[in-house]
Amino acid sequence: MGSHSTNMRVKLPLFCLVLEAITIVLFAIFVRYDHETDASAWHQELQNNSKTNSDNDFYYRYPSFQDVHTMIFIGFGFLMTFLKRYGFSSVAFNFLIAAFGLQWSTLIQGFFHGFHDGKIHVGIESMINADFCTGAVLISFGAVLGKTSPVQLIVMTLFEVTLFGINEFIILNIVEAKDAGGSMTIHTFGAYFGLVVSRVLYRPHLEKSRHREGSVYHSDLFAMIGTIYLWMFWPSFNSAITAHGDDQHRTVMNTYYSLAACTLATFAFSALLNGEGKLDMVHIQNAALAGGVAVGTSAEMMLTPFGAMIAGSLAGIISTLGYKYLTPVLDSKLKIQDTCGVHNLHGMPGILGAAIGAIVALAATADIYGGGMDDVFPLIAEGKRTAQSQALYQFLALLVALAFALVGGTIVGFILRLPCFGSPSDSECFDDSLYWEVPEEPEHIAVRTEDPEQQTQA
Amino acid sequence: MGSHSTNMRVKLPLFCLVLEAITIVLFAIFVRYDHETDASAWHQELQNNSKTNSDNDFYYRYPSFQDVHTMIFIGFGFLMTFLKRYGFSSVAFNFLIAAFGLQWSTLIQGFFHGFHDGKIHVGIESMINADFCTGAVLISFGAVLGKTSPVQLIVMTLFEVTLFGINEFIILNIVEAKDAGGSMTIHTFGAYFGLVVSRVLYRPHLEKSRHREGSVYHSDLFAMIGTIYLWMFWPSFNSAITAHGDDQHRTVMNTYYSLAACTLATFAFSALLNGEGKLDMVHIQNAALAGGVAVGTSAEMMLTPFGAMIAGSLAGIISTLGYKYLTPVLDSKLKIQDTCGVHNLHGMPGILGAAIGAIVALAATADIYGGGMDDVFPLIAEGKRTAQSQALYQFLALLVALAFALVGGTIVGFILRLPCFGSPSDSECFDDSLYWEVPEEPEHIAVRTEDPEQQTQA
Amino acid sequence: MGSHSTNMRVKLPLFCLVLEAITIVLFAIFVRYDHETDASAWHQELQNNSKTNSDNDFYYRYPSFQDVHTMIFIGFGFLMTFLKRYGFSSVAFNFLIAAFGLQWSTLIQGFFHGFHDGKIHVGIESMINADFCTGAVLISFGAVLGKTSPVQLIVMTLFEVTLFGINEFIILNIVEAKDAGGSMTIHTFGAYFGLVVSRVLYRPHLEKSRHREGSVYHSDLFAMIGTIYLWMFWPSFNSAITAHGDDQHRTVMNTYYSLAACTLATFAFSALLNGEGKLDMVHIQNAALAGGVAVGTSAEMMLTPFGAMIAGSLAGIISTLGYKYLTPVLDSKLKIQDTCGVHNLHGMPGILGAAIGAIVALAATADIYGGGMDDVFPLIAEGKRTAQSQALYQFLALLVALAFALVGGTIVGFILRLPCFGSPSDSECFDDSLYWEVPEEPEHIAVRTEDPEQQTQA
């Protein structure tokens, strides 16, 4: 059934093992425990600085890390199992990409952010950042879901993680914009990168596989596992690397309210846009999450709870509208086949989130932030920037993210077209059986009687 | 297929958007960051009181909050997916109700508990309490599951959250009973409220939909996801708002032992009550959780581990007996159609939990509690109450909860009968296709061959 | 359908209720709150020692505990739902075994580790250890999955928990080996114990049930829920009871990198070993987890991130090779029917983990560990052992674990053969309908049309 080009027997092991070997060698050369994970260094600090074990950043961030980890592996993984015959690939390629991506991004982000004396120092914060970076790749994966081989996905991960690291360094360290929850660095970048890759890999005859592009009843329930976990733990995502104390606390709360409001807007518009007033699982599974994206930049700021709710409502509305009206147009007019609709969940809400971040930055005053200005807008606190200039830099950061996504996605898209990486034919898309030993029956849906006689009768 | 009254195209958007708009306006007027989420206020405290960031209540409660959040959205949501053709509605209406309920209860509970200088101050504890309140509504949802339109559910949420806030205020602040895990305020109130609503909405011809009321093999496995999450995280539920230190620690442990013992009792009685000695998934999915309800009041007290295990065993036994013998009687004699059997999981165990709480309060002595009396029974510590009087007040609180549930449920039930809210006909219950775009086939089970020829042959 | 011997109507309630009653009595006699869960004792400490509530071990360990809890109940439970017609039993017997096991192990481990003045003192650490112990039993359950009655499983739990406690006491307190994540005490012991039990219970005519031993499409997705949770939370498992500060932090990080590398190795070898280059869900579901087992002993040591990645890669490779080549041989030559392949996921990686632990111990120097030597290798820090001797004791501990598993498993296997415990016949294995009320159709797969006419036509 699989064409020769997608036979993974040699290619997949080769790429996995060679990349893993290179990664291990680079880790051996460059990666070291940081002062909080190194036995000797931490105990030195315990003795010298009158620090206590409870000061170890582990206790401030590990619960958030595990929530983020759950979003990456369960959230993204199961969200994409909505396809009726691509559940194995969705959850398992998600697993593969993220497992490779987090190692690779430890190196890339380490070179840019954690390089001390020629070594990359790692701890809980680098783990969170590595997971964040894989989030961007998984967003792009959503755009090309079902249409790319695992080798293509690994190659995409290799390049996208690298570009993510450069883009993030420019936005956070050169432009010095704030983006704790990654509206720009993760969502906007990941979405438009994936959309451009999908454009470059455009399949004119994808209709040959369209009968497999939908869901079945239980695959939609599997997808809801992903949705609900993403929704619940998004407050942890946005707050995972914000400053200790009020910052983490406030970021969580703003995200919580944004998502709650977004959910109501999504249900409302899903029913409104349907001719018969029926709800669409695609909207609930995806658009209800846009509220997390929309406050990714601003949640750590003094957004106020009602501000968060407005942001979330707007995000739910534009996302649902996007699924209804924009996705078909992207497909038919712009030749962008966006399997999961990442433009609606991450693209537009990411831009919205960047804009909201800039607007809230604009409103920053010493009166509102007090001593907390230091944590949220250190440059304003130090008098190096005004609120207005910070807002402008926030917009600039958005442009950087978009530019990196569009240019990077184009280049990587063309790289992925190289025949050596393999690619399913237009009639083989959205089909697990190309890559997987699928239980029992190759042609039917697997869930069926196990009684052979019963099959014959049918 | 859907009757006119359940066409949600106008009603659902209208209710969602208007209520969300009202909520946002009320938040804008009343809701403010508390001293731990406000940048200026918290940094003031850091400077003045020699507080450190690690004192922020966020670090004491956020992991528990996320566990509670998981119980509300995954636990309740998936527990109700056991129905073969109502999984979309179960998990998604659960999502909708909870997302609206937590916003509304922030306001209602805020007016009663967090009102300072005309403002409601919000932080991690108000978030936990808001989630708690939605728990009561979701319990009621279990009683009417499959028989109410989403608009009816939103209206029910609006009123039930409001009544919950008043009831809780009376129990905790006027009667001054203890009820950290909500045996009375959440479980008893939520269950009897829902049962009375179900009674008022009695459907004489529900047999027309009974063929959809059961489960299929995989829907029972989806439901087990809900069950296990509720079971695992119940210790976090009961302890989420207890005092720091030994209180949270002890509450967790008591709940853990109660649930473990309850599980064995449930398996035992499930096999015992079945003519062929076979286990019933309904019992395992539900009755095994009754141990969490049964120590909802007493888990923060010096219940002792073996006391917790006795409580859990009793709860498992009465709950399983309830499913076997009481649910059919409620249906046939009292005209209470209790879809999920919330009477067995939350109603009776809630009353049991209230009673156990009163008994354990009765046994409180200065010797047992020492300096911890202040946290668990402040009025006894201050000499304002004896253990005996505290026990009496605990019983009084149960009566208050029951009264609010019965009267409130009756009134709200009659409100829900107004035709404008829409309601499925007796033959349309337990059917997702009334409210949802269901994949592919409207009449068959969705999981099926995707090959059209195959269908024709069958 | 069920043979008389597996009718559970009397036996299962009898065993559950009698064992629960004995457990409650033993708890009443022996189990007491420890100084951190007892109201009086903790408040004494607050007053005397200038301790604060944040010093309560609860805050250091509860998030890890809940992750471990999730691995035990969701992770193991759903991992085993891969069987097409044994999902109810997999997740629910897992639930039953673990709920009983954690109570019983509180007693057994308490006698060995927490016995003060004739009482067992319990708190968060004893809860984690109790969950750990049930992990070993659930590993053994994987070897006999589908071939044992619930009464047999309870009896196995009773004995295995007891042997686990003795074995663990010898390894940790007499041999004084380190094994925080239980490569030896949990994985090696649990796997070989289960394999020997399976050998003793060898079924020569199991081919009569082989048609039910495979998966269906959606059962493989349910199993992936288990896999991903085990994978994500394994860092919490290995670190749950390590020392505060750098130890917990470092253990988490080492495990994270080991698992990530293991995942790539697993995908590589799964494709490589398949004639058509297709991936096998069995490998992804299981072998990708071996990286957690392989650093169970060494993750708290100064393994270094790249060392962890080498360990994980090796584990993924040997585990995948095991599934491909060793499991069939164990079955055909050694008469060991290992349903879940626990030899590949826990057995060999457990031995590998023990060996890696010994090697890393051998490399321990004062320079590397500094003041942290006290936490990781207290005997080396005190000068009572050299690194070489510690390494030898680590190997000795492995031999102890293997000896306990082999001898204990043999004895318990023969006990389980007693007819009074019931056992399915060779043609009744892997079949829920023997123990469960299965929805609707006893012979067909349950997921099917609910329209009776439709069935007739088929």
UniProtKB/TrEMBL annotation, chains A, B, C:
Query: What's a single GO BP term from this record?
Result: ammonium homeostasis
Please give the superkingdom of this protein's source: Eukaryota
Disulfide bond recorded as keyword: no
The record, for SUPFAM superfamilies, names: Ammonium transporter
Give GO MF terms, alphabetically: ammonium channel activity
Q: Where is the Ammonium transporter AmtB-like domain?
A: 51-418
Source lineage: Eukaryota, Metazoa, Chordata, Craniata, Vertebrata
Task: Identify this protein by name.
Answer: Ammonium transporter AmtB-like domain-containing protein
> Keywords assigned by UniProt?
Ammonia transport, Cell membrane, Glycoprotein, Membrane, Transmembrane, Transmembrane helix, Transport
Membrane topology label = Multi-pass membrane protein
Q: Which Pfam families match?
A: Ammonium_transp (PF00909)
State the family named in the UniProt similarity comment for this chain.
Belongs to the ammonium transporter (TC 2.A.49) family. Rh subfamily.
